[in-house]
Amino acid sequence: MDKQTEQKKVFLEIVQQLRQLIHLEKIQAGEKLPSERVLSERLGVGRSSVREALRSLELLGLIETRHGGGTFLASTHKHQLVEVLSMFILEDEKSKKDVEFTRQIHEKEAIRVISCTEILRTLPVWDSFFVKLEIEGSVNCRDILRELLITTGNRLALKIWFQLAAYDGDRLNRNSTEEEKIIIQTMLKSMQLGYEKEALQAYEQWMGTV
């Protein structure tokens, strides 16, 4: 492991431990965090590492350093603590896989609902994707997946999906490849015909190429 990767790993571990500490001690916005020395001892890391982590969190607006007064948890209206910390936590490969797995649960459930509901599987939007694939040769991957969730009418699932999909960034928000074209067409056609099993198989194959 190179030095940069090792430093990144240490930083992420400190952020995770800080998050746990804030939760366990029920530190509220505006309340003071333990000193660098105390954090260093409790987290089992050097003070310089703690200082760097705190400095980064301060730049993100998660904490505030008051001259001569210590470090405080920033007001909640300035940020979304869980969301911003998650950006760091999700640097961990297992966490990324967990998010991807959870996102796909919502997408597969949407395919099941659409395949089993005639009024949903016969909507013209699916034909429009077919036409786009034939004329332009590709479609935006994120657009299709988003449409699956929108079509089900489950607003809560859609909101959750948007949050999960945001962590995949450019991996989803791109045009499909030639290899994906036939797979996507198979998924859409199976879904339109009400063939749930075949639609899900095509979806799984598609996700294997993403």
The gist of it:
The protein folds into two domains: 3-73, Orthogonal Bundle (Arc Repressor Mutant, subunit A); 89-208. Helix content is 69%, strand content 4%. It contains eleven helices and two strands, in the order αααββαααααααα.
How would you portray this structure in words?
The protein is mostly helical and 210 residues long. It has 2 domains: 71 residues, Winged helix-like DNA-binding domain superfamily/Winged helix DNA-binding domain (Arc Repressor Mutant, subunit A, Orthogonal Bundle), CATH 1.10.10; 120 residues. The protein has 11 helices and 2 strands; from the N terminus they run H-H-H-E-E-H-H-H-H-H-H-H-H. It has a two-stranded antiparallel ribbon with strand order 1-2. A hairpin with a 3-residue loop joins strand 1 and strand 2. Helix 5 packs across helix 8, helix 8 runs antiparallel to helix 9 and helix 10 packs antiparallel against helix 11. The longest helix is centred in the middle third of the chain and has 23 residues. The protein is elongated and about 65 Å long. The two termini are 27 Å apart. The mean pLDDT is 82.
Q: How would you classify the helix and strand content by structural class?
A: mainly alpha
Rounded to an integer, what's the Rg over CA atoms?
23 Å
Oligomer: single chain
What's the total number of strands? 2
Stretches where pLDDT is under 50 for at least 5 consecutive residues are none
N-C termini distance: 27 Å
Protein name: GntR family transcriptional regulator
InterPro entries: Bact_HTH_transcr_reg, Tscrpt_reg_HTH_GntR, WH-like_DNA-bd_sf, WH_DNA-bd_sf
GO molecular function, one term: DNA binding
Organism: Lysinibacillus sphaericus OT4b.31
